[in-house]
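[User]
Um, tokens okay?
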Amino acid sequence: MFERLVGVANESAITVSGHPATALVDSGSMVTTMSEEFYTGLEPRPPLHTLEEFNLQLHGADGNNLPYIGYVEVSIGTRFMDGELDVPVLVVPTTDYGLDVPVVIGTNMIGLCMANCDTDTLVPEEWSTAFVSVRSGYIGDVKSTNQKTIEVKPRETITVSGFTRKVRNTDTAVTESSERASSRIGVCPRVVTLRTSCRSQRIPVRYITYQRRLCA
């Protein structure tokens, strides 16, 4: 009965800036997090940045606020990919579960892995399960309607109006980075309201840059 009641944790071995760690690959999380204890053990320790400028509020599955200390920019590697991917990661208070599994991989990292994974790569089950889950939630791409180049400064946030055609009917969605997006620029997860009567409509997307100056 216990085996039927409780499933196997979707965990995977990863590296964070070269440091080995165990991660929960969670397609239900839009952000990637690491425990404060794991962060303080990194050498060299990456700078901790504030999130005040983003006005970001995070909630867990129970609806309660998810506390966080700030965010860092680290490189994450997996067993099935060559090299590492640059990912912004939230630093959160350490929990009992986080003592053994200090990293939670969210859809921002899952999407990057999907985009950078070769088609003939043998993907572990814990990752392929997450890939399938992320693909099933796809609603449509948002394309910019701006006719001029938009310059975004390092560590700047900007809201850009885009246009989308829904592949399925729904009244709400969450904006997030696509599989083809650059790892140097991200999309702040935001819930947007969609008109069910219209297949095509405008969507505001808030971008954030992490490193060098970019043009969009």
Observations:
- Confidence is low (pLDDT under 50) at residues 212-216.
- The chain has two domains: 2-136, 142-215.
- Residues 91 and 185 are 19 Å apart (CA to CA).
